[in-house]
Amino acid sequence: MTKLSVRDLPTDKIRGKTALMRVDFNCPLDSAGNISDDLRIVSSLPTIRYLLERGSRIVLVSHLGRPKGKWDDALSLDPVARHLSGLLDRKVAFIKDRLDGPPVEKIRRAADQAVFLLENIRFYPGEEANTPDFSKSLAKLGHFYVNDAFGTAHRAHASTVGVTGYLQPAAAGLLMQAEIESMSRILSKPQRPFVAVIGGAKIKDKIGVIRNLFGKIDSLLIGGAMANTFLAATGKTVGASKYDKDQIDVARSLIEESEKAGCGMVLPSDCVVTRALDAQSPGRVVGANEIPEGWMAVDIGPLTREAFRERIRGAKTVVWNGPMGVCEVDPFSLGTLDVARIVADATRQGAFTLLGGGDSVAAVRKAGLEREISHISTGGGASLEFLAGKTLPGIEALSDKATGKGGGKR
């Protein structure tokens, strides 16, 4: 990795100093305001512990939801602070006050190894606007900067880019480093055969990824609602299935590009169909060219699952993004869960496997297979942009390892 990591920082740059650390604690909350999935918090614990073990104070910066620059108690990070205290087995001081004199003085007077969590950073209009004044106010809170929030690396905000123009060095946290190295590995030097499994609802969200993978991958396996668009593009009737009518030409183009790139695109040969997206609604398996009028495809069928298994079984590299069907409804989650098991099997056989996308990650965790995947990305949009070959501003703003130079635009 060409960017500076916390592992590259000398001890004297850490001990007794304050790290301003951007994290992604944007976790789902239940109706009682409790955290229902703490994956993103747990994923940053190694970096937090690394800094604490070396005597650093830490000021954590995160967002939650989309408050759009307004204070909203329903999106407060207070529950996150309490949960993090339990995970670290130490008090995490929650800074609810606005960023002015009192918080700054409190942090400056704190003992080594103290941990603070600021209130939702997106409550401040200057965060998403990336204003110089707000970036400077953040920079005053630390002696050096760490970004462990890969999930926000595609955003040029004050806490991901602007602050690095005033606070150096700016280093990648251990999670950020793992994300960069894992995705760079599959883009620059993947072992072949290389198989990509792409699902989800919309083709337009994955066009850049698919096109950037052409020439690198040997097989492209398509599932989810976006598969219906590809099927429609080949002239098949998809009944009442969800598909992007305005992306039919794009789908045809991608099929042609796949053939030119020598990449085997595998579309569903059979699917599970139903009349309603309801767990009580009966489903049945039909051929992909036999979807009845009024019925919708909601999962890949057993023949498709076996075809996917055959392609993945011999792979040395696998990237998977997006579910194979409506996996939030249990009867229609079998295809996604089966792919999770197949990818886990490939990992056990020595393949490097990378997984991204919220629903895909949820399926792997539901199957208890998260430890059987080489790398699970915490970034949704960020991972898609990285795999599409785009430059992520939050990564670009970090200091270069060779020169030490870096810093976001002021």
Short note summarizing the structure:
The protein is of the alpha/beta class. It is 34% helix and 16% strand. It has 2 domains: 6-177, Phosphoglycerate kinase, N-terminal domain (Rossmann fold); 190-387, Rossmann fold (3-Layer(aba) Sandwich).
Keywords:
410 residues; 14 helices; Rossmann fold; six-stranded parallel sheet; 34% helix; 2 domains; alpha/beta
CATH secondary-structure class of the largest domain: Alpha Beta
What's the total helix number? 14
What's the alpha carbon Rg, rounded to whole Å? 23 Å
The unreliable regions are none
Beta-strand portion reads 15-25%
The counted number of beta strands is 15
Outline type: elongated
- The CATH topology of the largest domain comes to Rossmann fold
Report what the structure shows.
This protein has helices at 39-53, 78-88, 101-109, 125-129, 132-139, 174-188, 207-213, 225-233, 248-260, 302-313, 334-348, 358-366, 381-387, 393-396; strands at residues 18-22, 57-61, 92-95, 115-118, 144-147, 170-172, 194-198, 219-222, 264-266, 270-274, 283-287, 296-300, 317-321, 352-356, 375-376. The chain is α/β, with parallel strands linked by helices and 410 residues long. It folds into two domains: 6-177, Phosphoglycerate kinase, N-terminal domain (Rossmann fold), CATH 3.40.50; 190-387, Rossmann fold. The longest helix is centred in the N-terminal third of the chain and has 15 residues, at 39-53. The mean pLDDT is 93.
